[in-house]
Amino acid sequence: MPRNVITNIENGRRADVSAAELLVLGRALGIPPALLLFPIGVADEIEVLPGQVAQPWAAYKWFIGDESFPWSPAGELEEHGSGPVDPASGMHRWYDDPERNWHEGAAPISLYHRHEQQMEAWFDANIRAARLLGDDASRASEMSELVSTWRKSAERELVDVRTQLRDLGLTPPKLDDRLQKIIDQMERR
Questions:
Q1: What is the SS3 string spanning the chain?
Q2: Which distant-in-sequence residues (6+ apart) come within 8 Å of 4 by Cβ?
Q3: What is the model's pLDDT at position 82?
Q4: What's the half-sphere exposure (Cβ side, CA atoms, 13 Å) at 88?
Q5: CA 137, CA 116: separation in Å to the nearest integer?
Q6: How far apart are CA 111 and CA 6, in angstroms?
Q7: Residue 146 and residue 127: Cα distance in Å, rounded?
Q8: Distance between CA atoms of 189 and 176, rounded to whole angstroms?
Q9: Which of 52, 23, 58 is nearest to 38 (CA)?
Q10: Could you report the per-residue pLDDT of 77-99, keeping only the tens digit for each?
Protein backbone atom coordinates (compact mmCIF):
# COMPACT_ATOMS: atom_id res chain seq x y z
CA MET A 1 0.00 0.00 0.00
CA PRO A 2 2.73 2.61 0.75
CA ARG A 3 4.15 2.54 -2.78
CA ASN A 4 0.72 2.95 -4.40
CA VAL A 5 -0.21 5.86 -2.15
CA ILE A 6 3.09 7.66 -2.69
CA THR A 7 3.12 6.97 -6.46
CA ASN A 8 -0.44 8.24 -6.89
CA ILE A 9 0.29 11.42 -4.96
CA GLU A 10 3.58 12.03 -6.81
CA ASN A 11 1.86 11.58 -10.17
CA GLY A 12 -1.02 13.88 -9.27
CA ARG A 13 -3.64 11.13 -9.40
CA ARG A 14 -4.55 11.76 -5.76
CA ALA A 15 -5.00 15.09 -4.02
CA ASP A 16 -6.63 13.84 -0.84
CA VAL A 17 -5.05 11.52 1.69
CA SER A 18 -6.95 9.57 4.34
CA ALA A 19 -5.78 9.50 7.95
CA ALA A 20 -4.60 5.90 7.50
CA GLU A 21 -2.66 6.89 4.38
CA LEU A 22 -1.11 9.82 6.23
CA LEU A 23 0.24 7.35 8.78
CA VAL A 24 1.54 5.10 5.98
CA LEU A 25 3.26 8.08 4.36
CA GLY A 26 4.90 9.12 7.60
CA ARG A 27 6.15 5.58 8.14
CA ALA A 28 7.40 5.27 4.55
CA LEU A 29 9.19 8.62 4.70
CA GLY A 30 10.60 7.95 8.16
CA ILE A 31 9.10 11.06 9.74
CA PRO A 32 6.33 11.71 12.26
CA PRO A 33 3.04 11.93 10.32
CA ALA A 34 2.29 15.20 12.10
CA LEU A 35 5.08 16.87 10.12
CA LEU A 36 3.16 16.13 6.94
CA LEU A 37 0.30 18.22 8.30
CA PHE A 38 2.34 20.80 10.20
CA PRO A 39 5.64 21.63 8.45
CA ILE A 40 7.38 22.87 11.59
CA GLY A 41 10.49 24.86 10.78
CA VAL A 42 9.67 24.86 7.06
CA ALA A 43 6.65 27.16 6.72
CA ASP A 44 5.88 30.38 8.61
CA GLU A 45 2.12 29.87 8.39
CA ILE A 46 -0.29 27.17 7.27
CA GLU A 47 -4.01 27.11 6.70
CA VAL A 48 -5.32 25.21 9.73
CA LEU A 49 -9.00 25.55 8.89
CA PRO A 50 -10.46 27.05 5.73
CA GLY A 51 -9.49 30.72 5.77
CA GLN A 52 -7.66 30.51 9.12
CA VAL A 53 -3.89 30.51 9.24
CA ALA A 54 -1.56 29.81 12.13
CA GLN A 55 2.07 29.04 12.75
CA PRO A 56 2.75 25.32 12.26
CA TRP A 57 4.01 24.85 15.85
CA ALA A 58 0.87 26.45 17.33
CA ALA A 59 -1.36 24.36 15.05
CA TYR A 60 0.55 21.19 15.97
CA LYS A 61 0.17 21.92 19.71
CA TRP A 62 -3.58 22.32 19.18
CA PHE A 63 -3.71 19.09 17.17
CA ILE A 64 -2.02 17.05 19.92
CA GLY A 65 -4.08 18.68 22.68
CA ASP A 66 -1.34 20.71 24.35
CA GLU A 67 -2.92 24.09 23.54
CA SER A 68 -6.29 25.46 22.54
CA PHE A 69 -6.99 26.40 18.93
CA PRO A 70 -4.66 29.16 17.66
CA TRP A 71 -7.41 31.52 16.60
CA SER A 72 -7.69 35.20 16.01
CA PRO A 73 -10.41 36.73 18.23
CA ALA A 74 -11.22 39.45 15.71
CA GLY A 75 -12.29 36.99 13.01
CA GLU A 76 -14.05 34.62 15.35
CA LEU A 77 -16.21 37.18 17.13
CA GLU A 78 -18.28 37.81 14.04
CA GLU A 79 -18.94 34.13 13.42
CA HIS A 80 -19.81 33.03 16.95
CA GLY A 81 -22.03 34.44 19.61
CA SER A 82 -25.60 34.79 20.60
CA GLY A 83 -27.94 37.49 21.72
CA PRO A 84 -28.38 40.89 20.16
CA VAL A 85 -25.50 42.56 18.33
CA ASP A 86 -23.99 45.56 20.13
CA PRO A 87 -24.35 48.50 17.68
CA ALA A 88 -21.17 50.14 19.03
CA SER A 89 -18.85 47.20 18.54
CA GLY A 90 -20.77 45.10 16.03
CA MET A 91 -20.24 42.05 18.25
CA HIS A 92 -22.74 39.86 20.01
CA ARG A 93 -23.36 40.95 23.58
CA TRP A 94 -23.04 37.39 24.85
CA TYR A 95 -20.09 35.87 23.16
CA ASP A 96 -20.02 32.08 23.00
CA ASP A 97 -16.35 31.18 23.14
CA PRO A 98 -15.79 28.04 21.02
CA GLU A 99 -12.79 27.24 23.22
CA ARG A 100 -14.50 27.55 26.60
CA ASN A 101 -14.69 23.77 27.11
CA TRP A 102 -11.34 23.05 25.49
CA HIS A 103 -9.57 22.10 28.74
CA GLU A 104 -12.28 19.59 29.59
CA GLY A 105 -12.10 18.11 26.11
CA ALA A 106 -8.30 17.87 26.31
CA ALA A 107 -8.33 16.34 29.82
CA PRO A 108 -7.45 12.80 28.69
CA ILE A 109 -4.34 14.09 26.94
CA SER A 110 -3.17 16.35 29.76
CA LEU A 111 -3.81 13.63 32.34
CA TYR A 112 -1.90 11.04 30.30
CA HIS A 113 0.97 13.54 30.00
CA ARG A 114 1.02 14.04 33.77
CA HIS A 115 0.87 10.28 34.28
CA GLU A 116 3.85 9.74 31.99
CA GLN A 117 5.84 12.51 33.69
CA GLN A 118 5.27 10.99 37.13
CA MET A 119 6.21 7.51 35.95
CA GLU A 120 9.44 8.93 34.53
CA ALA A 121 10.07 10.84 37.77
CA TRP A 122 9.59 7.62 39.77
CA PHE A 123 11.91 5.55 37.58
CA ASP A 124 14.53 8.32 37.22
CA ALA A 125 14.73 9.15 40.95
CA ASN A 126 17.95 7.14 41.43
CA ILE A 127 19.63 8.76 38.42
CA ARG A 128 18.61 12.28 39.46
CA ALA A 129 19.83 11.70 43.02
CA ALA A 130 23.18 10.34 41.78
CA ARG A 131 23.63 13.38 39.56
CA LEU A 132 22.83 15.70 42.43
CA LEU A 133 24.88 13.99 45.14
CA GLY A 134 27.58 12.29 43.08
CA ASP A 135 29.10 8.88 43.79
CA ASP A 136 30.18 9.71 47.33
CA ALA A 137 29.49 6.56 49.40
CA SER A 138 29.32 8.64 52.57
CA ARG A 139 26.15 10.26 51.22
CA ALA A 140 24.33 6.94 50.61
CA SER A 141 21.84 7.61 53.39
CA GLU A 142 21.14 11.09 52.05
CA MET A 143 20.74 9.65 48.53
CA SER A 144 18.33 6.96 49.77
CA GLU A 145 16.22 9.57 51.57
CA LEU A 146 16.13 11.81 48.49
CA VAL A 147 15.11 8.93 46.21
CA SER A 148 12.40 7.89 48.67
CA THR A 149 11.04 11.46 48.89
CA TRP A 150 10.93 11.87 45.11
CA ARG A 151 9.32 8.48 44.58
CA LYS A 152 6.67 9.06 47.23
CA SER A 153 5.80 12.37 45.58
CA ALA A 154 5.51 10.67 42.18
CA GLU A 155 3.39 7.89 43.70
CA ARG A 156 0.95 10.38 45.26
CA GLU A 157 0.67 12.22 41.96
CA LEU A 158 0.10 8.95 40.08
CA VAL A 159 -2.72 7.99 42.44
CA ASP A 160 -4.28 11.43 41.93
CA VAL A 161 -3.99 11.32 38.12
CA ARG A 162 -5.29 7.75 37.93
CA THR A 163 -8.28 8.73 40.11
CA GLN A 164 -9.04 11.69 37.82
CA LEU A 165 -8.85 9.45 34.76
CA ARG A 166 -11.27 6.95 36.31
CA ASP A 167 -13.61 9.78 37.38
CA LEU A 168 -13.80 10.73 33.69
CA GLY A 169 -14.63 7.12 32.77
CA LEU A 170 -11.18 6.56 31.25
CA THR A 171 -8.76 3.69 31.73
CA PRO A 172 -5.40 4.68 33.22
CA PRO A 173 -2.24 3.52 31.44
CA LYS A 174 -0.65 0.24 32.46
CA LEU A 175 2.12 0.35 35.03
CA ASP A 176 5.27 -1.65 35.58
CA ASP A 177 4.47 -4.60 37.92
CA ARG A 178 6.57 -3.20 40.77
CA LEU A 179 4.99 0.25 40.56
CA GLN A 180 1.51 -1.25 40.09
CA LYS A 181 1.79 -3.04 43.45
CA ILE A 182 2.73 0.20 45.21
CA ILE A 183 -0.09 2.18 43.57
CA ASP A 184 -2.61 -0.59 44.31
CA GLN A 185 -1.68 -0.47 47.99
CA MET A 186 -1.98 3.31 48.08
CA GLU A 187 -5.36 3.26 46.34
CA ARG A 188 -6.74 0.74 48.84
CA ARG A 189 -6.04 3.07 51.76
A1: CHHHHHHHHHCCCCCCCCHHHHHHHHHHHCCCCHHHHCCCCCCCCEEEECCEEECHHHHHHHHCCCCCCCCCHHHHHHHCCEEEECCCCCCEEECCCCCCCHHHHCHHHHHHHHHHHHHHHHHCHHHHHHHHHCCCHHHHHHHHHHHHHHHHHHHHHHHHHHHHHHHCCCCCCCCCHHHHHHHHHHHHC
A2: none
A3: 59
A4: 1
A5: 31
A6: 36
A7: 11
A8: 20
A9: 58
A10: 445 555 666 555 565 555 556 66
- Tens digits of residue pLDDT in 22-48: 998 899 889 999 999 999 999 999 999
- Evaluate whether 70 touches 62 at the Cβ level (below 8 Å): yes
pTM, two decimal places: 0.71
Answer whether 114's CB lies under 8 Å from 162's CB.
Answer: no
Residue 171 identity: T
Look at residue 85 in the predicted model and tell me its pLDDT. Answer: 63
pLDDT at 46: 94
Q: Using CA atoms, how far apart are residues 124 and 150, in angstroms rounded to an integer?
A: 9
Question: Quick check: 131 pLDDT over 60?
Answer: yes
